[in-house]
Predict the structure of ATP-binding protein.
Amino acid sequence: MKTFTQPMKGVTLCCSPEEVSRARRAIRVGLMERFPQHVVETIEQCTSETVTNAIVHSTSKDNGGKILLLIIELRDRIRVEVIDGGSSHSTPRITEPGTPYPEHGRGLFLVNALASAWGSYADETGGNVWFEVETSK
């Protein structure tokens, strides 16, 4: 019996703004040689937005918590998951342009516009925001 194991990379990030550039670098280094530049740039932008949201909105920022970035290569797409400590006071949502939130709320709007699919879920262990970008386009 032949099994197929998905290539996957995990990066543990500290919950600080400086780690967003480290997350972007993990995307570039892991994918740039094998996928078109526009695909990698899309994944990089979506990663930047979701990691930033985890840093700003999750309880991972309390007491030196961590964020896990998973990069999973599927047959025709890349799936990225950002796993954090969760939040008791906010849930991921899209803020439309023109909504009166001048400093916050555009990240998931961009992810929704750029990614092929995205979603989130949370339970007592934390939160997960994921997105997928097709590699064949």
